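F.,

This is the one I mentioned.
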């Protein structure tokens, strides 16, 4: 079979495979290209995937020494779904929060909450009590499933809020309501029968923004599943674009290793949700450990690894040390941050059977967007890739909202059924990011004649530390709480391992002293540890300003970074 062009392959698949038939639909008053035949919601996705998952007998979840078949996963999901309804009083449309480290219960709760038409609220497991309090109040959440560390942070909130806390795993000893007790007392493991519309809300994920407080990104069932089936289609397109050699052995059953938090779309969408219709085994690590990851990839026949670039570097270094080439690994992806160009070739050489990959997507797009892998990526290590077909549209806009010519820097703007519904409780921010169904990403880039996109900068003041988005204003707001601080400017500091870390230039009030250690200790009660600056510059003089009187973030950053360069000489 001869290789097809991308346009030819897309036309062939969309016209011959009913699963990927494309039509149009009116979504909130705007016409979008959509997949016509995909499951309408998450519960239907699980039901439709039973045969794909070996008629339910296939091993599905692996977590240390614990194993679930797909049937066992579905039965526990359904039991928990009935517990939500009959024991906890959760109704369709109610928000239910999950606050915990990655574990099987987190994906079971995600599926169960979605199956009864409730809305899962993903909260960052690293958040402080103050940050958790904001998200729970913003989302109106009253029911929270949490492990021990998160419960310890939440207990003080129960005094003033009518929170229903359910302990999970090590959290069961800290709450009256216990996940395992509720689950084991439920006999009914039938599928729930709640009538869920495809454009009903599925989840709220909090994404750091430029306004200081995180924004609640409201995702619908259609939005999430549009992304899932976009990625499924890429696997169908692959052999048409690059036909396998005649007589090549069949590919092994896909198996994914989850090493990033499930409260981010990289893990929740492109790994967990995608694993269901892909028939993939879902392997979880309780925490990141490169040596353990190498052993698990080898022993569990993992084929797909997606982590932040730091984790790819750790995996590569440890595999070299252990003399492991991991021959079944066929995909080494990066999400959450840009991978250093040099790492692309190094990974391709160490893992010759794997396609090294990267991409661009947002919480606001349900992780759908742009991608590149294999030889294309090796040849263009600075590129984010091409737009995933067939239901997305892409353009690049200037500050006035006009489209710029090919090769010219503009704001990446996408229109897709995968896009979020809105920012929760923030109509002005929603109106600002949406224009007639087009979502303005805040990222600046260019596109070449072949459709490859290169991201060059960000319009918004966001630091991406090891895949975690950090709003500069969020950190500045926390630092301003300290009585010794007159003003502050937060910015990114380049870092070989994490990509970027947090830096802060701080003007202290006159006759007041403050050390970096004292400030970091103070900040630990106000913001998550990954947001606390690793580089701090104190001064008595005012920070630099532009003509309008605003702090000149660029000059402040450049001035501080020069001191690092001098120290390195």
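My design for it:
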């Amino acid at each position: 079979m001869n290789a097809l062009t991308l346009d030819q392959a897309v036309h062939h698949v969309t016209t011959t495979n009913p699963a990927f038939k494309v039509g149009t639909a009116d979504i909130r008053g705007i016409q979008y290209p959509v997949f016509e035949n995909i499951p309408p919601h998450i519960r239907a996705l699980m039901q439709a995937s039973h045969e794909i998952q070996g008629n339910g007998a296939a091993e599905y979840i692996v977590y240390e020494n614990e194993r679930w078949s797909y049937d066992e996963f579905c039965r526990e999901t359904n039991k928990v779904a009935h517990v939500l309804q009959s024991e906890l009083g959760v109704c369709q449309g109610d928000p239910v929060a999950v606050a915990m480290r990655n574990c099987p219960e987190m994906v079971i709760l995600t599926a169960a909450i979605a199956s009864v038409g409730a809305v899962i609220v993903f909260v960052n497991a690293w958040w402080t009590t103050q940050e958790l309090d904001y998200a729970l109040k913003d989302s109106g959440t009253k029911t929270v499933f949490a492990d021990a560390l998160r419960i310890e942070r939440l207990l003080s909130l129960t005094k003033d809020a009518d929170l229903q806390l359910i302990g999970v795993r090590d959290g069961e000893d800290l709450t009256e309501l216990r996940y395992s007790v509720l689950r084991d007392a439920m006999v009914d493991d039938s599928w729930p029968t709640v009538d869920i519309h495809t454009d009903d809300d599925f989840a709220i994920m909090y994404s750091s923004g430029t306004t200081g407080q995180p924004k609640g990104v409201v995702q619908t069932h259609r939005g999430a599943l549009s992304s899932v089936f976009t990625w499924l289609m890429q696997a169908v397109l692959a052999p048409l674009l690059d036909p396998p050699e005649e007589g090549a052995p069949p590919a092994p059953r896909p198996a994914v290793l989850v090493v990033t938090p499930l409260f981010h779309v990289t893990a929740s969408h492109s790994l967990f949700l995608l694993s269901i219709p892909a028939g993939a085994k879902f392997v979880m690590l309780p925490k990141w450990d490169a040596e353990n990851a190498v052993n698990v990839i080898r022993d569990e026949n993992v084929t797909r690894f997606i982590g932040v670039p730091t984790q790819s570097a750790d995996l590569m270094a440890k595999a070299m040390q252990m003399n492991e080439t991991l021959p079944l690994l066929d995909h080494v992806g990066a999400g959450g941050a840009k991978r250093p160009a040099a790492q692309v070739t190094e990974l391709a050489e160490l893992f010759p059977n794997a396609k090294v990959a990267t991409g661009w997507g947002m919480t606001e797009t349900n992780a759908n967007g742009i991608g590149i892998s294999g030889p294309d990526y090796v040849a263009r290590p600075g590129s984010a890739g091409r737009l995933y077909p067939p239901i997305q549209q892409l353009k690049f806009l200037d500050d006035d909202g006009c489209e710029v010519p090919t090769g010219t820097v503009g704001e990446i703007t996408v229109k897709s059924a995968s896009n979020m519904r809105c920012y929760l409780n923030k109509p002005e921010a929603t109106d600002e990011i949406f224009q007639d169904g087009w979502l303005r990403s805040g990222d600046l880039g260019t596109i070449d004649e072949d459709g490859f996109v290169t991201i060059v900068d960000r319009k918004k003041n966001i630091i991406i530390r090891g895949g975690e988005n950090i709003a500069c204003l969020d950190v500045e707001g926390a630092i301003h709480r300290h009585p010794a601080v007159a003003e502050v400017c937060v910015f990114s500091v380049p870092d070989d391992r994490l990509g970027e870390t947090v830096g802060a230039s701080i003007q202290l009030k006159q006759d007041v002293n403050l050390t970096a250690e004292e400030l970091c200790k103070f900040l630990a009660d106000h913001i998550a540890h990954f947001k606390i600056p690793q580089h701090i510059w104190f001064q008595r003089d005012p920070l630099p300003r532009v003509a309008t009187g605003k702090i000149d973030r660029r000059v402040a950053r450049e001035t501080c970074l020069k001191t690092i360069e001098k120290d390195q000489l």
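The two ends are 58 Å apart (CA to CA).

Talk soon.
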